[in-house]
Amino acid sequence: MSSTQMLKGVLEGCLLAVISEGEAYGYEMIEKLNSYGITMVSEGSIYPLLIRMQKEELLQSEMKDSPSGPRRKYYTLTEKGKKELNEFMERWAELSQSVNRLLEGKGEAR
Amino acid sequence: MKTENWIELNNEKRKLLTKENEAIYGEMLVYLRMSNKSQEELEPVLIELLDHLLDAQANGKRAEDVFGENPKAFCDELLTAMPKPKAKEFFSMFAPAAVIGLGMWLLISGSDGRLEYSLISLIGMPISGLLCLITILYGIRVSTFRSGKKGFAILYVYFIIATLSICAVVLLDHFFGKPIFILQGTAVYIVMAVTAIVVMVSDYRTFGIPGVLFVFLFVGAQFVTEIPYFSKELRLVISLILNICAFLVLLKAGPRKQKRVSNI
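YS: structure for the whole thing
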């Protein structure tokens, strides 16, 4: 399984986390994700998610002038989005702990 | 911002793309605009993607890094995420095309100074006309993301199917149709004049100058065959030339029709 496939399920949560750091437009989100070592085979795959999350009212967007020049679509979290992020963080903590427990010591067993 | 402003902005920004990126983005643009999604919602997304591609380009990335190796799959994913189109917007696109199509049919069938319709043509022509419209729109969609020749071949096959369906109705009407509706004399000219004005206005508003030119040449070609002063051969030659001109105009306006629709 490639890391892209693994990422698919948690990308939504990662986007919520990135946007919670401050309003951002698409390309900025990719740069922030990259700075944490999260890379994607196709960067554009965040857009279907952004559209869906906006439809679900987790995000809201606004056209604004960006510091570098052109107007960009900036995304921010809604109250519902903040709640969703908290839930994601809890679920992720549980899941990663369980997976870590499962994998512990497996490296030596080989 | 209004839809037409988004499109203008898109046309401007697209010039900044490299040739390779413009090829990929251009195909996606046609495919996405040909979808049934609301233009009002789609155009801002198209700009967002274009901005991303331009940023990526400035940082030395390729279009494949942004849209993946399979841009069509990416577009489909995007379309599934988008909300359903509004019925009102759909009809605002569809109604002008229907008016122009039906109007042209009336003008051509009235070129001999008589309007008569059988049940077969009254029912058959609108249906096959609709079929034409759908197959051609669908054909343009299917033919995107294929290399040049293959895409053209697909479009051509769709066009032939659509044309054949109209021929079938005309033939059926010729052999089996009994006129149930006949109009003659001055009334015909009044009806035709009104139709011509309606067609021209809605054509200009939807497709711009090339659209009007196409209707003018295409309908004109049928009228020429009715001019009594010329010899039969001359009429046929003029009509043929006008027809060819009409299709040359259509070819220029054809696949980019969508762009033009929205430029107005």
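YS: worth flagging: Residues 203 and 212 of chain B are 6 Å apart (CA to CA).
IM: good catch. Also The interface with chain A takes residues 1, 44-45, 48-49, 51-52, 55-56, 61, 64-69, 74, 77-78, 80-83 of chain B (CB under 8 Å).
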